[in-house]
Amino acid sequence: MRPLRTALAVGAVAAALLAPTAARADPGTQATGIPAVTDDRGRALTLRGWNVEDKVNRGDQALSAVTERHFRDMRARGFNFARLLVFWDDLEPRRGRYSEAYLRKIERVLDWAEKYDVHVLIDAHQDVFGPAFGHRGVPAWATRTDGLPFTPHPDDWFAEYFEPAVQRAFTHLYEDEDLRRAQAAMWRVLADRFEHHPAVLGYDLINEPMGELREGEGLPDAARRIEREQLTPMYNRLADAVRSVDRNTWIFVEPTPIVGEGVPTGLGRIEDQKVVYAPHFYNTAMEAGADYDPAAGWIETYEQAVTRYPREYKVPVVVGEWGPLNNSLPNMNRFYREAMASLGRYGSGWAGYVWCYGGGYCAVDGAGAFRTNKELTAEPYAEAVAGTVASSSYDSGAGVYRLAYESSRRGSRVTELSLPPGAWQVTARGKAVVLREGAGKAWVIAAPGARVTVTVTRETRQRVSP
């Protein structure tokens, strides 16, 4: 939490600089035409962080692989966001019997996030539907296959989504009234328990939803149909369930994973005032171990496709997962630089996959050091902007971040900056002042309606000759 002396300093400067105004700012659409996720003071947020998970342990050991260190280390590198994976099969192992112990474990993780000032998205995660198929997610008691076959694919688990039994299980989840009620009840339990927790920013209603292909139907057409006819009504049902107990928390909705190939979603309107579009950003070839191919135009195609829905329905976008498995291949340095620039152009943020200590997808090694090229995800950025952003960009080669915005005419005047480890100089032009205290943070306080330009520059220490 921010030290008291900093809060007092901010208040003193603000009193001298600003005229009294109303208590809350109006959230505005940013220059991209895509709205921003906002905080309870109306400030435009940028969320940058990582997925946090424990897919291995369950029951009494559930979430034991997630520790306070995860949040301490993420915050120390400038990250302010965690997408926390929770599993319906752990929450409701028997129908109608919710695990109080599991809810307490989730709450303990949220308390760590609050301690280190990290926003949390609670993600109802599923992989290949759930434990009936050897994975996690929807409980076995809620899995109906009509006796259709399932063959495991240990070397390509994603292929299991196309097994007949798995596809039929999704159809029953979407179509069976009793399963609809059970899924809604599960979300009411979660939202009722955590609606007032300071760390909770939003709820991701289901991870990477899939569905059943019809005979002769191509995958892109099937994905758009599933999104239009099954996911859209499901999200509206679940949003109603959440709103029955929680009126204010953001609701995140995902398309099928097929959007990763640059296919626009078929999702329709979700009838809620605080919806976030939350696609994932994976490339099939790279997931299979291939290097990034800059000539293929994948990032450009993805960006063009993924921005259609938020522009049409005027909702923010936050990418819920991204990052290749083999991050040290020759072109991966370029991939990270180009991906970071793209994500920064249209989104309110992202969660990389995954913050863990080791190999594979892990962001850091066992000692906590960034693995090859993953250090490029740690940039200066504006965590919360008290106004409307005109532009925001980082030149990784020069080590210069620039933010231009028009400050709010009412409500909060405090814009918060996150700075990764290192020496950084922060300046502001316009009717604004910069406050600094300690490493990792800076605050800009601006007059109402001021046009402000903030520049953050990486300092290079000159060696002094004797």
- What is the number of helical segments per DSSP (H or I, 4+ residues)? 11
Structural class: alpha/beta
Spatial extent as radius of gyration: 22 Å
> Which bin fits the share of residues in helices?
25-40%
Topology order in helix (H) and strand (E) letters: HEEHEHHEHHEHEEEHHHEEHEEEEEEEEE
The biggest sheet amounts to: 8 strands, parallel
Indicate the low-confidence ranges by residue numbers. 1-28
Number of strands: 19
> Which geometry do the CA atoms define?
globular
Strand coverage percent: 15-25%
Distance between the termini: 42 Å
Q: How does this structure look, described?
A:
28% of the residues lie in helices and 20% in strands. The protein is of the alpha/beta class and 466 residues long. Strand 2 (47-52), helix 2 and strand 3 (81-86) form a beta-alpha-beta unit. Helix 6 (177-194) crosses helix 7. The chain is globular and about 65 Å long.
